[in-house]
């Protein structure tokens, strides 16, 4: 499914909200300069040693993770559709003094162009709220496989589609995602960084912009886990690890979440354990 029209609308919705998210992040540049990292253990473990590797960070948002990855020794290129996110990421790189390159593009255009130009990377990474913005999983997976170096690998950490059947009070509300079915969000991309009250702001939480209403609607694409894995396998990527986690890292997606150590959040005691995130590593074979 191409749906460039919906992805361009998503660009507007992200452009409207990036500054609001950033307003909660505190002095992230200083935090990064002084040795901090925005990464969680799950992606660190899946990524392994990054020293000297070229790394493509897809859907990099405001670049906190990209810069944290660069601090681990990778040469990082971040790509995002949002003009505001890329401006913010460049500003963060400059202020934190960590070199990283950021390019604004729709992931599909970028992968097609990079493949035409013969660009290659040792590692491709994407995380935390990425697959739901993709309208075509096969083109995405094929693009990633094409630009990976022969011994390269892809790491993805994202929210689990199983969690998507619940509304925010843990009531079963929607079918399990499948076939990339578009879901229109009239309220657009929300202020999930503010709602996480510190879970997504390791440099400290700022009150920032309060009561934000996004004037730009957004469209999600609902995929099941099997479809995601099949797209990667179909692109001849050898899936070596799939982990499922019964907690979220930082994001307070549901009511009454229990706080665990390390900015993790689990469902309340009366909700059965359910996978809220998954992580995978797939290698070029
Ligand atoms: C939830 S954020 C990802 C979080 C990010 N990993 C971080 O470290 O903050 C999703 C990102 O996907 C980007 N995005 C959405 N659709 C896209 C597309 N078609 N191409 C490239 N980026 C896209 C958005 O602009 C947004 O920055």
CATH class division: Alpha Beta
Mean pLDDT: 96
* Rg, Cα atoms, Å: 18 Å
Q: How many angstroms separate the termini?
A: 27 Å
Helix content: 25-40%
Number of domains: 1
- Number-wise, the strands total 12
Percent of residues in beta strands?
Answer: 15-25%
Query: What name is given to the CATH topology?
Result: Rossmann fold
The neighbouring-strand order within the major sheet is: 3-2-1-4-5-12-8
Keyphrases for this structure?
single chain, 285 residues, alpha/beta, Rossmann fold, seven-stranded mixed β-sheet, 12 strands, 24% strand, binds S-adenosylmethionine
Explain what this protein looks like in three dimensions.
Helix 7 packs across helix 9. The strands form three sheets. Strands 3-2-1-4-5-12-8 form a seven-stranded mixed β-sheet, with helices on both faces. A three-stranded antiparallel β-sheet has the order 9-11-10, with no helix packed on it. Strand 10 and strand 11 form a beta hairpin. With 285 residues, it is α/β, with parallel strands linked by helices. It has nine helices and twelve strands. It is 31% helix and 24% strand. The protein has one domain: Vaccinia Virus protein VP39 (Rossmann fold), CATH 3.40.50.150. The two termini are 27 Å apart. Bound molecules: S-adenosylmethionine. S-adenosylmethionine binds next to helix 1 and helix 4.
């Amino acid at each position: 499914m191409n749906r460039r029209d919906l992805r361009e609308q998503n660009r507007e919705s992200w452009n409207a909200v990036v500054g609001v998210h950033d307003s909660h992040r505190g002095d992230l540049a200083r935090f990064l300069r002084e040795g901090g990292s925005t990464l969680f253990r799950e992606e660190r473990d899946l990524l392994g040693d990054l020293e000297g590797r070229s790394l493509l960070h897809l859907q990099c948002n405001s670049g906190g993770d990209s810069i944290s990855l660069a601090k681990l020794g990778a040469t990082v290129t971040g790509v995002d559709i949002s003009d505001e996110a890329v401006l913010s990421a460049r500003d963060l790189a400059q202020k934190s003094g960590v070199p990283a390159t950021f390019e604004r593009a729709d992931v599909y255009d970028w992968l097609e162009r990079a493949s035409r130009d013969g660009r290659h990377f040792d590692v491709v990474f994407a995380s935390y709220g990425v697959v739901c913005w993709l309208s075509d999983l096969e083109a995405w997976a094929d693009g990633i496989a094409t630009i990976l170096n022969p011994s390269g690998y892809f790491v993805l950490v994202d929210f689990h589609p199983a969690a998507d059947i619940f509304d925010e009070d843990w009531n079963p509300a929607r079918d399990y995602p499948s076939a990339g079915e578009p879901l229109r969000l009239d309220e657009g991309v929300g202020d999930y960084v503010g709602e996480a009250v510190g879970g997504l702001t390791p440099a400290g939480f700022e009150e920032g912009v309060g009561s934000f209403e996004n004037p730009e609607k957004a469209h999600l694409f609902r995929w099941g886990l099997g479809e995601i894995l099949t797209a990667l396998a179909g692109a001849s990527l050898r899936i070596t690890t799939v982990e499922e986690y019964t907690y979220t890292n930082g994001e307070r997606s549901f009511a009454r979440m229990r706080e665990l150590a390390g900015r993790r959040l689990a469902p309340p005691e009366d909700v059965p354990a359910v996978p809220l995130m998954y992580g995978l590593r797939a290698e070029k074979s």
